[in-house]
Specification:
Shape: globular
Strand content: over 45%
Largest sheet: 7 strands, mixed
Structural class: mainly beta
Distance between the termini: 37 Å
Radius of gyration: 13 Å
Amino acid sequence: QVPLEESGGGSVQPGGSLRLSCTPSGSTFNAYMTGWFRQAPGKEREFVASIVGSGGSTTYSDSVKGRFAISRDLATNTVYLQMNALKPEDTAEYYCGARMDPFDIYKYWGHGTQVTVSS
């Protein structure tokens, strides 16, 4: 069973907004770090943003800094990615991944949610 599930993708026009959600399948799933990644057709998967579970420290790729915001709902362990001022180059399949400790790789992934930005 995939421990993470993404939702919130869709089609929007340039300049629009979407909010993605990453929800763990089990209530006991507490990741050290949750990250959002994306993969466009013919390209490698790339890092978008991450958030540390305890203190909320966040990191963003340069391509989304100032437009996207990652946050966590501690009550539900849901991680959100608020995407504003979307551009056609943001079109991709978006995945959330989880690291369980500081020395771990991203071990758990969801199936992804598609984001399409076009006019």
